[in-house]
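Reading a protein record of the kind used here takes only a little practice. The integers have meaning only within a learned vocabulary of local backbone shapes. With that in mind, consider the following protein and its fold in token form:
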Amino acid sequence: MRLSVITLAMGVIMLTSCASDINHPAPLPAPTAAPLVPKAGQTTLAAQGRNPDEFPAYVQQLKDKARQQGISQATIDTAFANAHFIDRVISSDRNQLENKITLDDYLKRVLPESKIEQGKVQYQQNATALQQVSSRYGVPAQYIVALWGMESNFGKLQGKEDVFSALATLAFEGRREAFFTQELLAALTIVDQGKATSDMMKGSWAGAMGQSQFMPSSYLRYGADGNNDGKIDIWSNTDDVFASVANYLSTEGWKSAEGWGQEVKLPSGFDASQLGLKNPQMHSVSEWQQQGIVSADGKPLPTSVTRAWIITPDDQQGRAFLVYDNFRTLMHWNRSYYFAISIGMMADGIADNPAKPIE
């Protein structure tokens, strides 16, 4: 859901998109080739009994699956006309940078001050369209701009991979075969329904598309026509991009009266068993305040009945955050504490308004 970008590795962060929040269908049968001695760059596949030499046969299985799902032969022919195995897709999937660096390093790389300044400029330049979308969906414009900026650098970095080849490669790799098979079928459905041509289906190594970096199933579920022209163009039409992002957040439960959260300081001896979004010991802001939790600047939290959770995304650095339901909604987009925090911080910077709990 995925991704200023300063190195090739940064592309890994920025183009992962929202791939983790889609249901998983039943997997296709795996190729039956026996394990082979791996060639250079094939270690991970060969360890599972899969070799890129078997990819064409696997693509044929995918074509058969598509036919069974009612995809037309014409769509199958055009979508798979140039289908090929992409080794760098496998490398990107297994080496996502945010799994290897601290929160501070992550934020320095994906959220420099220049990125926030760009966001402010885009916010002003697109004020009319953003306010219309914000009013329609109940999502503050700064979050729309933050996701747009973080996912594709405001539309400049959408990815150039053939989506069908990327998704077929990831399904073939096998770690998340069911998920990527489903996404491939969704991509074929987009073309089959006339929403986009096969040539338009370009995106990230993970198959995320357009300025919002939607996975194909997210496009089908959340894509919105922002300018009422009867199309949903997340590749070149910013009205549709803004509406689609806002529709995603709104559908997933965005609360217009709340922010996302804020950094806090934990008292000495804080019970770590209370940490985490899945912790059943959810408390209100006031209850956390009573436990001695204060804002990052040392000021007391206000009295508030807003429910909140405490997270510590990076054990190495010990930074703590008090987060609200909207943070959980951002996690639907990309299930990464780092990512959701970066979106919240960027939105705050764009609005030039520090996050505050609801009083």
